[in-house]
Amino acid sequence: MVSILWFRNDLRLTDNPALAHAAGHGGALLPVYILDPAAAGAWPMGAASRWWLHHSLKALDDGLRAAGCGLLVLEGDTEALLADLVQRFAAGGLYWNRRYEPASIELDKRVRQRFNEDGLDVASFNAALLNEPWQALKGDGTPYKVFTPYWKACLKAAPPAPPRPAPERLPPLPGGVNPAGLEACGLLPQIPWDAGFYAQWAPGEAGALQRLSAFAAGPAAAYEAARDWPAEAGTSRLSPHLRFGELSPRQVVAALQPQDPDATGPYLRQLYWREFAHQLLFHFPHTTDRPLNPKFEGFPWRSHYAADLQRWQQGRTGIPIVDAGMRELWATGWMHNRVRMIVASFLTKHLLIPWQAGAHWFWDTLLDADLANNSMGWQWVAGSGADAAPYFRIFNPVTQSTRFDPQGRYLRAWVPELRALPADRIHQPWKGGAHPPGGYPNPVIGLKEGRALALDAYQAIR
Ligand SMILES: Cc1cc2nc3c(=O)[nH]c(=O)nc-3n(C[C@H](O)[C@H](O)[C@H](O)COP(=O)(O)OP(=O)(O)OC[C@H]3O[C@@H](n4cnc5c(N)ncnc54)[C@H](O)[C@@H]3O)c2cc1C
């Protein structure tokens, strides 16, 4: 019997329940990845994610081949392509790991129903989360909208099972199948704006495991003290690996729990923010595009903002910490969490540009672009989301920059025009009426003026 293993956000061999299940049937194994942008609804993968996907699928294929199998990569309508494979190979089973984006849930339902009706053995598994989004609910059966009680409820549940090792050998591909198809998908960009990614990242399971063990052996111990400093390598940078499932959260817990036995420490807590985001998206699927807090439906965002949005995207707002973050994002496909909060706050508050515009830019440029984390992050900063900071608490980017990058090391790394400025000037090069050096722009808006406009706008929905 041929078992089809439908790969999705689970591009790994280790701790992969659908893989273990499909391989356990004994007959031939047909692992397939289907690129189907139409099935992603309004959120087809952005350009940076496609770059990562290309390299991750290549690594997955290598890993599967080394275990005696291989990967077929197809592009098109998922249901039609799966139906074709089922028929061509007279498959007896179809297995996959679940996704939690609204469009993916709909696709899962259709696939399950169709192939169940066709008499296939169909099963899906959880490979992405420590808890299913429907597991930790309030006493009245409704979902949590505040993080801390959600997290405490999760900690009371049974601890995550230990991760299972990668199989050394896998059943072979069915006769006549060539593992191929990746190059035809054209996932890599035509213009080489991805040049800076190669030095920073190693997509694929081996790169993920290497990064996890380096983090566990080093920076993890000082995570709490270092995690807010963008010039330090104080965070794990595991986010794209987790996003593509090259690593399971259970593997992360297993690697870090010896340092944090009750999982209440600062690092594992961040993993529960990821869980929280997924449960929010599951229960409130409209929050990818609309505010969780309905009061914000009537928020008076600006409607003509294209020029300011472009200055923000290009890192030319004239506010050094904002520009440093946006340039880091463009050059590396990643941005430090503290700086993500600062740039998002500046866009939605000082510039009064709707959070959805920022979320779409992040979606296209982040290598870790994740619908759950991105929607929650943007709504949290904009004040319309779960557990959000009150709208009137507005980050001052200069104060943030002075506090978290006092010597200006992060600013100098990403805004070369300002490199020569001393630490007491680099955070606000316009101070005292000075002209910023080297063609660096004046601020797109005065910080006091922006803050006042934001507070006025907020009055409209109070
Ligand atoms: C506006 C905004 C947009 C964001 N968009 C994304 C996104 O598209 N994808 C994404 O993975 N994260 C997003 N985040 C969350 C966070 O910034 C990143 O997860 C983090 O910076 C990744 O770096 P790291 O792996 O070094 O994190 P670490 O500090 O090492 O954290 C470990 C892991 O925990 C998870 N995590 C950490 N912080 C958060 C958080 N605040 N919310 C949810 N999960 C978290 C991530 O999976 C991360 O890899 C966003 C945050 C903001 C403010």
Question: Strand order within the widest sheet?
Answer: 3-2-1-4-5
Q: What are the low-pLDDT stretches, counting only 5+ consecutive residues below 50?
A: none
Helix content: 40-55%
Second CATH tier, the architecture of the largest domain: Orthogonal Bundle
- What are the distinct ligands in this entry? flavin-adenine dinucleotide
Under CATH at level 1, the class of the largest domain stands as Mainly Alpha
Q: Assign the CATH topology of the largest domain.
A: DNA Cyclobutane Dipyrimidine Photolyase, subunit A, domain 3
Number of strands: 5
SSE order, one letter for each helix or strand = EHEHEHEHEHHHHHHHHHHHHHHHH
In DSSP terms (H or I, runs of 4 or more residues), the helix count works out at 20
What is the beta-strand fraction? 5-15%
Shape: globular
> How many structural domains does the protein architecture include?
3
Q: Cα distance, first to last residue? A: 63 Å
What is the average of the pLDDT values?
95
CATH superfamily of the largest domain: DNA Cyclobutane Dipyrimidine Photolyase, subunit A, domain 3
CA-atom Rg in angstroms: 23 Å
